[in-house]
Design a protein that fits this description.
The protein has helices spanning 2-24, 156-167, 196-202, 230-252, 283-291, 328-338; strands at residues 29-35, 39-41, 45-54, 60-70, 73-75, 81-83, 86-95, 99-109, 113-125, 132-146, 172-184, 206-222, 255-265, 271-277, 293-294, 318-322, 343-349, 362-368. The protein is of the alpha/beta class and 369 residues long.
């Protein structure tokens, strides 16, 4: 009789514990997944952190955390990840009462891009491992993989040609956004440039110095047509790296630039563009925006994405087209856009390439990848 009573009590306790877990398993249970850095460069290694907290008096013998991450961010071998179009990551934890566990997961940035993790699945089990409980917890973490820069020697000739055209018609003005230092106030200096805080400390009027910017703009267009084939993907990525390197050199030389593309911005879904960029202080922002540039198929004709003010000649902006395409209609369209001004065409290519016709006022440069 005593054995039956004990067995009955055990059964009752068993079902009571199951009910307690069914009701309270997610109480005080939290999961935070976060990139530990804001950005990295292609081929760099970075870290993703997982923080799991069980802030209650019930132990959690098994908690599984799963989430998806773009396959361009590759975890090290042996970590719990399955790779297809995306990396599916699953980690298992055993949490005691009021315990916090932190894990750091290293990954390699194999490709440029902008990446987000918005949700994580949490699967818990009861003390007897007989029940499963599932919940999705919102996450909010993002990460930029910036395009790497190519060696300057690879773009030195087109850069020199661009700078020669810019300097031949240069006018120099102060860039108010690029601080270069302080000097004593001189009669005739604009009042808006007086640094009042520095003046109060020094006891004499001091005015801000600004970097000089060349007045002629350079408009850079990146053609991102073509996605899904190895050759087009590789050459489009080469175009982005060329644009990033050229833009950096121009900004450091004091040239204001505009960047445009027929590709889309993955953050907004709109056509990608940066209408006005100036000063070396804009370099990180520029490369972050380039991380968001996406290639595609059936995109708008590349040259239609130049701003209307670029059409014409004389004192108009200098146009630069970076495109892997060797279609003659693109060459003609670009020549028409240049008009009486100057244009530079850069074509990334593999070991062999098709010859392109020469056009007046357009300098053509082939760049082997």
């Amino acid at each position: 009789m005593g054995i039956v009573v004990i067995a009955g009590l055990l059964v009752a306790v068993f079902f009571l514990i199951k009910q307690i877990y069914a009701r309270f398993w997610d109480r005080g249970l939290s999961c935070k997944i976060a990139f530990t850095e804001d950005y990295a460069v292609e081929d760099d290694t970075s870290v993703l952190s997982e923080v799991i907290v069980n802030n209650k008096l019930l132990p959690m013998p098994v908690v599984e955390i799963d989430f998806h991450m773009d396959r361009r961010l590759q975890f090290k071998e042996g970590q719990n990840a399955a790779v297809s179009d995306q990396t599916y990551r699953r980690d298992v934890f055993a949490l005691s009462v009021r315990q916090k566990i932190t894990r750091r997961l290293e990954f390699t940035c194999t490709g440029r891009g902008y990446f987000r993790i918005d949700s994580a699945g949490v699967l818990g089990r009861d003390l007897f491992l007989t029940q499963k409980f599932l919940e999705h917890l919102p996450q909010s973490t993002d990460f930029y993989v910036l395009p790497r820069l190519i060696p300057f020697r690879e773009i030195e000739i087109p850069f020199s040609r661009i700078m020669g055209a810019v300097l031949s018609r240069k006018k120099v003005y102060d860039d108010p956004f690029e601080f270069a230092g302080l000097r004593e106030y001189s009669r005739g200096d604009p009042m808006k440039y007086i640094n009042w805080k520095a003046t109060a400390r020094a006891g004499e009027l001091l005015t801000n110095l600004h970097e000089s910017t060349l007045s002629q703009r350079v408009e850079i267009l990146i053609d991102m047509e073509g996605k899904g084939l190895l050759q087009s993907d590789v050459l489009n990525e080469a175009s982005v790296r060329i644009a990033a390197t050229l833009a950096e050199r121009l900004l450091r030389a004091g040239v204001e630039i505009g960047l445009y593309s027929n590709g889309h911005n993955v953050q907004t879904g709109q056509l990608w563009k940066m209408d006005s960029v100036s000063g070396a202080g804009s370099l990180l922002y520029l490369r972050k925006q380039l991380a968001c540039l996406e290639s595609g198929n059936d995109l708008a004709p590349a040259c239609e994405c130049f701003p209307d003010t670029s059409v014409g000649g004389g004192e108009e902006d200098l146009l630069v087209l970076i495109s892997r395409s060797v279609r003659e209609d693109l060459c003609e369209d670009f020549s028409n856009r240049v008009g009486k001004g100057r244009g530079v065409r850069i074509v990334p290519y593999f070991a062999e390439h098709k010859e392109l016709p020469g056009y007046k006022n357009v300098d053509l440069f082939w760049m082997e990848v």
